[in-house]
UniProtKB/TrEMBL annotation:
Pfam families: Alpha-amylase, CBM_48, Isoamylase_C. This is Glycogen operon protein. It comes from the Bacteria. InterPro entries: GH, GH13_cat_dom, GlgX_Isoamylase_N_E_set, Glyco_hydro_13_N, Glyco_hydro_b, Glycogen_debranch_GlgX, Ig-like_fold, Ig_E-set. The lineage of its organism: Bacteria, Pseudomonadati, Bacteroidota, Cytophagia, Cytophagales. NCBIfam families: glgX_debranch. GO terms for molecular function: amylo-alpha-1,6-glucosidase activity.
């Protein structure tokens, strides 16, 4: 059969039947290793991936349903085809393996995998597509979009049932053999306990790409984050853990690139072992691995942990009409959740779902996690849409194989494990339902605190639960307040500045007619929408930002701050800036609100200095032996303890909270009891000032004001009041009084 060519597509191919396509896809392999001087040994099936041992490289690839695998070696990133093609003959337990002596780190490679092309039953093998190694430790570049990257003919009436013979090698990045050796200089992980952790969510590029004190050549890279100017800023701010938005090598969607946009956030992984090449300043042939390791080392030297935001729930290959880049072509059925063979189950909103029920996928995920811990020295993970990983058939199962394996793993179980406890599938909202050993992004904390400060009807009992660690969600089964990762904002949604400046999202720049992004943001613009010159509105917005920050850091649990919120970063009302790799998303260091930044720095320093706000265990609400006071007590504005009937019917507009510094019930590393100052905190979300009376003397003989969000004060030089004194608390503000430990009897 002859083919004509129209726009790069071969005419007549759609006339072939699936059985004909299967025959062509299974055509006899040519063992080109015999036509070259390259020696090939059988090699070993473990470890998977490409492993250099100093003398050569062992290659191992898992494919259960393939009929043949070719290892393709390239001599340069610009090469449009492989210069050596090796037929892999050894197969052990579905692992295709070979050893090639003489190869060195920096070697570029990929795979062509043969087998049936029958999409209706889930088989999509196509040897015309060069494939990225799922275990590649480094990937040389980014996808250059072209129709050849698809396993079918773009524009064919049969869509993905057609079969493409276009070679994708010129357009797909190559896998790279790496040298794992690295001098860590004896630097070890900070090992910060959860109750002492302050998390700072940031984007590697967005954090430093405009930083004036970072050399231009390394801005927006791993090296830029490791630069002394970056680390000095993080140290002064007071955070001790950075949560990096995805750094696994990812795909920037074709439809975004065609609109002049990109997948800036990176939640579209294709390489679960490879640090993304876009954030490398030092090279693309494995240098990015060493640059990432050096970043971790420098952060660890500064006492800062590194947590990775990881996306194991799906890949960048999309649905049945997506490209064939790696998993789909290696063994579609062995990696994805399929529906009726041809289609993909989609619990993620991205087109596909990895099948974590399968041993091969579980091994991939666990091997990836262990690699980032043992080789890259990271300190933990935040799992994107973690409910998807817990699904057995369709339901989210707390006893799924995914949890069981992690729980028993001696390496993975010892680092920080944080779940985004939801996905878009049925019953996907699983906040509070993850097993012991896990912390969770607490979406109910976010919603409650936003409602409280915007003046919505927020019940007192709900506010109390969220402020004290959400015991209704996490108490029991040996979980603690630190299971709650508290946040007001995250990368997904309004920034803190925009939360108090916009009632409605402004996502027109995304090119989706403002349909994307959450419409119910629980935000309040303080009287005017967007930028304003109204001084009263500006003052109220500034105070609201301080209120949110103060509430976040005074609450029990683990606080998470989003990069730039500490100084008022705005995205101009865009609450879904996933595709904005530009000034909308980047931190603009020329627009820092110095007053807000100073307030945040002092606030974090203050809260870190007082274990009263960093309790490991739950409040008991019971008298402490020998003292006769509870570890926590709740008060009305008149100074009287709150009666029980107030909990169920009162809105939490204004209340006082006593935190007993002698009721921490926690030991230091040497086994000594921890004591602290006691504090009296007043939250007033009312639109008018409220007169308050301090509680009786048994709660404290002298109270010094240390925080007042109305005047941006965090200081030990504040006003001193006595028990029973009255004072006015400004509208929409937080006031904190301290009763010094030395004045208390223990």
């Amino acid at each position: 059969m002859e083919f004509g060519c129209v726009n790069g597509l071969k005419k007549g191919w759609c006339k072939l039947k699936p059985t004909d396509m299967k025959k062509i896809a299974n055509k006899k392999l040519v063992d080109q290793s015999q036509e070259s001087s390259v020696k090939v040994f059988p090699g070993e099936p473990y470890p998977l991936g490409a492993t250099w041992d100093g003398k050569g490289v062992n290659f191992a690839l898992y494919s259960e349903n393939a009929t043949g695998v070719e290892l393709c070696l390239f001599d340069s990133p610009e090469a449009i085809t492989e210069h050596i093609k090796i037929q892999i003959k050894e197969v052990s337990h579905h692992v295709w393996h070979a050893y090639v002596p003489g190869l060195k780190p920096g070697q570029l490679y990929g795979y062509r995998v043969h087998g049936p092309y029958e999409p209706t039953v889930g088989l999509r093998f196509n040897p015309h597509k060069l494939l990225i190694d799922p275990y590649a430790k480094s990937i040389s570049g980014t996808v250059q979009w072209h129709d050849a990257l698809f396993g079918y003919n773009i524009g064919d009436p049969e869509e993905d049932l057609s079969f493409s013979e276009l070679d994708s090698a010129p357009y797909i990045p190559k896998s790279v053999v790496v040298d794992h050796l690295f001098d860590w200089e004896g630097v070890t992980a900070p090992e910060i306990p959860y109750h002492d952790t302050v998390i700072y969510e940031l984007h590697v590029k967005g954090f430093s790409c405009l930083h004036p004190d970072v050399p231009e050549a390394i801005r927006g890279t791993y090296a830029g984050l490791a630069h002394p100017a970056s680390i000095a800023y993080l140290k002064k701010l007071g955070i001790n853990a950075v949560e990096l938005m995805p750094v696994h090598h990812f795909i920037s969607d074709r439809h975004l690139r065609e609109r002049g946009l990109s997948n800036y956030w990176g939640y579209n992984s294709i390489g679960f072992f490879a640090p993304d090449v876009r954030y490398s300043s030092s090279g693309t042939h494995g240098e990015q691995v060493k640059e990432f390791k050096n970043m971790v080392k420098e952060l660890h030297k500064a006492g800062i942990e590194v947590i990775l935001d990881v996306v194991y729930n799906h890949t960048g290959e999309g649905n049945q009409l997506g490209p064939t880049l790696s998993f789909r072509g290696i063994d579609n059925m062995a990696y994805y959740r399929l529906m009726d063979g041809r289609y993909y189950m989609d619990y993620t909103g991205t087109g596909n779902t990895l099948n974590a029920r399968l041993p091969s996928v579980l091994r991939l995920i666990m091997d990836s996690l262990r690699y980032w811990i043992t080789e890259m020295h990271v300190d933990g993970f935040r799992f994107d849409l973690a409910s998807t990983l817990a699904r057995e058939l369709h339901e989210v199962d707390r006893l799924s194989a995914f949890f069981d394996i992690i729980h028993q793993d001696p390496v993975i179980s010892q680092v920080k494990l944080i779940a985004e406890p939801w996905d878009i599938g049925f019953d996907g909202y699983q906040v509070g339902k993850f097993p012991i050993g896990w912390a969770e992004w607490n979406g109910r904390y976010r919603d409650c605190m936003r409602d409280y400060w915007r003046g919505a009807d927020s019940m007192l009992a709900e506010f109390a639960e969220r402020f004290t660690g959400s015991s209704d969600l996490y108490k029991g089964e040996d979980r603690f307040p630190t299971a709650s990762i508290n946040f007001i904002t995250a990368h997904d949604g309004f920034t803190l500045n925009d939360l108090v400046s916009y009632n409605e999202k402004r996502n027109d720049e995304n090119g989706e007619e403002n349909r994307d992004g959450e419409s119910h943001n629980r935000s309040w613009n303080c009287g005017e929408e967007g930028p304003t010159e109204n001084e009263e509105v500006i003052a109220l917005r500034d105070k609201q930002k301080r209120n949110f920050l103060t509430t976040l850091f005074l609450s029990q649990g683990v606080p998470m701050l989003v990069a730039g919120d500490e100084w008022g970063r705005s995205q101009d009302g865009n609450n879904n800036a996933y595709c904005q790799d530009n000034e909308i998303s980047w931190l603009n260091w020329d627009k820092v609100d110095e007053k807000l930044l100073a307030f945040t720095q002092k606030l974090i320093t203050f809260c870190k200095a007082h274990p009263t706000f960093r309790r490991k265990h739950w409040f008991r609400g019971m008298p402490i032996k020998g003292i006769g006071l509870e570890d926590i007590a709740w008060f009305l504005p008149n100074g009287e303890e709150m009666p029980d009937e107030n909990w169920n019917h009162d809105y939490a507009k204004s209340l006082g909270i006593f935190l007993n510094g002698k009721g921490i019930r926690h030991m230091d590393p040497k086994g000594k009891p921890i004591y602290d100052d006691s504090f009296y905190i007043i939250f007033n979300a009312h639109y008018e000032p409220v007169e308050y009376t301090l509680p009786p003397e048994k709660y404290g003989s002298e109270w010094r004001k240390v925080i007042d969000t109305a005047d941006a004060c965090v200081s030990d030089d504040g006003q001193v009041l006595n028990p029973g004194d009255s004072f006015s608390v400004d509208s929409r503000s937080v006031v904190v009084f301290r009763h010094a430990l030395e004045e208390q009897k223990i």
